[in-house]
Amino acid sequence: MPSEFDMINRYFAQANLTPSSDDKNCLLSIGDDCALLQLPDKTLALSIDTLSSDVHFPCDAPAFLIGYRALMVNLSDLAAMGATPAYFTLALTLPWADEQWVSDFAQGLSEAAKPHAIYLIGGDTTRGPLSITIQVMGYVQPTHALKRSGAKVGDAIYVTGTLGDAAAGLQIIQEELEGSESADYLVQRYYQPSARVEVGKALAGVASSAIDISDGLLADLSHILKASGVGARVLADQVPLSSMLLSFTSKVTARDWALTAGDDYELCFTVSPDKENELQAVSKTTGVAITKIGEITKSETLQCMDEHNQPIDFLTLGFRHF
Ligand code: ADP
Ligand code: MG
Fold first, then answer.
1. Is there an atom of ligand 1 within 6 Å of 55 CB?
2. In angstroms, rounded to a whole number, what is the distance separating the alpha carbons of residues 296 and 269?
3. Residue closest by Cα to atom 24 of ligand 1
């Protein structure tokens, strides 16, 4: 069966549907975290994501958390582009008109929107299976946009925060394991990811490429590799794991989740070695931990090495819908 990426490339990213390469207004279309549209005096970064009940969140999840997560997941794509959030639209499909649910959902949206100064400007409300589609819009200087295609051989690969927490959180929710302090933290990491908007903005002019980790570190990094025509060597034991995750599961499982499970919405990006000092300043000013996990290679393959420098084989690099 074709993956969603095969289908996008085959049917949607085709010449008679997409802008031509000499289109002056569309600077970037299908294939990155956001599209870029040139306005008379600004560049608009746009991205849209759908969250479907039971695929992207458990159907009985609290409405507040669904709203919060739906907006954060979209803000994460603006972060991955280095864009400043501005506005969003919301298409909401509901099986029922439950006012309390809608009120809680809106409260979740509002809590996620406030710190990022992003404002709702329109949408659509219909009846059907629960599904939330949000389109976010932000501004970015085109020369500073963090594309997937800029990674160069010799660049170091970094991630923000810690990885694997959201996978543990999802398991805790699904198996109803709530109750301990670490479980509460991990569940919160699943429902309330922190879009790394400030880091993305600060990486403008520092990072050579970036993506947000929605499907899994290795799966998302491989999009950078493909777009940039390069390979990578990732050191599995350098991938940052939280103490909460390590208190919940074994080191091996934690490492596998960090490498191949999605939902963390941290950033993965590449930086040329001569910009190391500027990168340290980004971590300092944003207060977000940044960890080096490997480097870009010429080989056009993705190698992930264990602590004995032996390659690790994975059945899957990350989540795929198809
Ligand atoms: P992300 O994980 O950053 O949200 P996706 O994996 O959903 O990105 O999509 C990869 C790229 O393909 C993006 O540039 C997105 O805009 C584009 N894309 C996805 N689905 C469609 C579609 N149905 N029509 C056109 N473009 C699409
Ligand atoms: Mg993305």
1. no
2. 11
3. 12
Task: Identify the residue whose C-alpha is closest to ligand 1 atom 8.
Answer: 33
Structure token pair of residue 153: 């051989």
Q: Which residues contact 309 (CB under 8 A, 6 or more apart)?
A: none
For tokens 């207060």, what's the residue? 287
Count of Cβ atoms closer than 10 Å to residue 297 Cβ: 17
**Alpha carbons 144 and 34: distance in angstroms, whole number:** 13
State the alpha helices, DSSP H only, in the chain.
4-7, 63-81, 99-113, 165-174, 181-191, 197-202, 217-228, 243-248, 251-260, 276-286
Global pTM reads 0.94
pLDDT digits (tens, 9 = 90+) for 33-50: 999 999 988 999 999 999
pLDDT digits (tens, 9 = 90+) for 244-293: 999 999 999 999 999 999 999 999 999 999 999 999 999 999 999 999 99
Taking Cα atoms as reference points, which of 77, 75, 83 lies closest to residue 33?
77
Q: Which amino acid, 43?
A: T
Residues of the chain with pLDDT under 70: none
